[in-house]
Amino acid sequence: MLDVARDRCSDLDIAQAREWLVTNGIGGYASGTVGGPRTRAYHGLLVAALDPPLGRTLLVSHVDETITHDDRDYDLATHRWGDGTVAPRGIVHLDRVRLEGTVPVWTYTLGDALLEKQVWMDEGANATYVQYRLRRARAPLTLRAKAFVTHRDHHAPTQAGDWQMNVSAVDEGLRIDAYDGATPIFLRSTSAELTPAHTWYRDYALAVEADRGLPDREDLLHAATVEAPLAPGDTLTLTFSTEPNASLDGPAACARRQDRDKQLVTQAGLDDASADIQHLARAADQFVVDRPTAEDPDGTSIVAGYPWFGDWGRDTMIALPGLTLTTGRPDVAEQILRTYAHHVDRGMIPNRFPDQGDTPEYNTVDATLWYIEAIRAYVHTTGDTELLRDLFPVLHNIVEWHVEGTRYGIQADPNDGLLRAGEPGVQLTWMDAKVGDWVVTPRIGKPVEVNALWYNALRSLEAFAETLGEPADAFRERADRARTAFGRFWAPKCGHLKDVINGPNGDKPHLRPNQLFAVSLPYSPLSPEKQRAVVETCAARLYTPHGLRSLSPDDSDYVGAYRGGREHRDGAYHQGTVWSWLIGPFVKAHLRVHDDPATARAYLAPLRRHLAGHGVGSISEIFDGDAPFTPRGTPAQAWGVAQLLEAWAATDEAQTAS
User: Fold this and answer.
1) Chain centroid offset of residue 459 CA
2) What is the DSSP code string of 131-173?
3) What letter would DSSP give residue 321?
4) Is the dihedral of CA 386, 387, 391, 395 positive or negative?
5) 3-class DSSP state for residue 411?
């Protein structure tokens, strides 16, 4: 159980810097801050995925509760307003916030009364439940609440103008139609009185959006008023959904969520593991989503991060082993791998499925190579040759396209067998920040991690072919050639690998963490001596407690803080910013070189403690490169959770073997 005590959860500055998240398995979510104030455009009780896993639309923002007890009113909500005012200040009554499984629970002390509130979503449905339970009181009290709604893309705050919504009564609740043809919003309860309202509250302040240089004011509609008595031991559940027939049985819906949380831990074989590792298994499930299509109605994918990312091919494949294989869910892994096989085009998997439109974007050089590594990990874990046989023609086609050439200049160089990629104005590697025409980290040529992945892919295809009784010589010969040429990455004077060779302006010797993949991937093109040198250099100059810096602080291009407007943030994104997911390849590389699982695992401890930090129960996307390594970016990132799980599993396996 993750627990935030009164000294932190009732401190406004601390509590609004910690965020909670619940999800529904189809891309929808609910999120907010531990202390109550909405600080992002994405915060809300019901962000529905209207075109799963995308089409995410903020429908229900929040509920402002007032409790009347002993002739005194207690406000539970806390808001910041555009003029700087904080009102009401319900946070002063907040005694504790904890996670029970994946369900956030708030405990309020109201005089001598103790009231609990919890929020969760139904799996597979755009339905959020808000439940109140009066744990202790000398006499019944009254709960009154205002429900606030909007109907907009989750990226952009509402400016109401004279917007009029239609609020009408339905069985045991209300229906809200934001405009003609809009997906309706249903607010229902079996034990509360719900009455229509229509009052706009204007100029909510969104502090994090202001820090990011984005629109930071919002208007929201008070569309319903809730009133109900609560006696000691009573429970009241409010259901917010896009469907009129969503379950109103709060205890049953809560039990379904609790059962799922328990099943995830058991399925992962972690019943005896520490609480933080158990929670990682539950957090892993939040990123797995349905991606149904006409040709693949059971399609499955992985959301890269909450609240704003969709499912990205690169992130999906990097995260897949940790989120599914280490958690005992190979069936989910198989479905994801088959789903992406449907979308292979010219030897590439999509980099991104856009929020609008149906055409995937194929602007990545490494996602497809990570796809091959994900298949290798799946086969290694399961021994499933049926999937391998089904996908082998796709994999063979991928290699042929890379040899002959595909989009954006991606092609194996006929002179040395290494993979080159890139065109002016296009970012193809994971270091993909771009502002207007400014390409922040131009890596045209032969990037080091791309060629580590290429070599790993060729060796994997060689092994796949041998397993299936297919010709393997061509893969072996290409791998041998790439391994010989890979030596050109070595920079003897620096004692580490160059980041890019054969670029338009020559080689780039920058010290970046990308070289770690030449050690951490199963097939390494480096000698043991050079593997050790890479790990030692990265440990000395790139490692931080929460991951690895994307650029050495000794570099003149280093930026140590990720903040400000988009240009500054994107300018820092891969120029020193710490990435949590890089802890995985670092620990795996360290384990390979030193064969010391206890020391390797010790590197994971700070991120394990971070589960109680920024995104409570999850792992942040990035951190500042300079101390104190403030968390930034998304508070819940798939590959951060996945690589922590994968690294933990690797050290666990090594400890068991020794």
Assistant:
1) 30
2) EEEEEE-SS-EEEEEEEEEEEEETTS----TT---EEEEETTE
3) I
4) negative
5) strand
Its pTM stands at 0.96
Helix axes 528-541, 583-594, angle to 10 degrees: 130
- The DSSP call for residue 615 is B
Closest listed residue to residue 225, CA positions, set 388, 379, 342, 66: 66
Per DSSP, the three-state class of 537 is helix
Residues 455, 446: contact at Cβ < 8 Å?
no
The DSSP bridge partners found for residue 63 are 147
Give how far Cα 265 sits from Cα of 276, 487, 616, 620, Å.
11, 44, 18, 21
Token pair of 100 as six digits: 């029970």
Give the pairing of strands 2-5 and 94-100.
antiparallel
- At 352-368, the pLDDT tens digits run 886 655 688 999 999 99
Per the CB < 8 A criterion, the answer to whether 105 and 117 are in contact is: yes
- The CA angle 107-110-112, to the nearest 5 degrees, is 105
Q: Among residues 268, 42, 250, which one has the least CA distance to residue 154?
A: 42
pLDDT tens figures, 121-142: 999 999 999 999 999 999 999 9
| Residues 394, 348: Cα–Cα separation, whole Å | 10
Q: Which two tokens stand for residue 365?
A: 């050089």
- Summarised one tens digit per residue, pLDDT across range 481-499 is 999 999 999 999 999 999 9
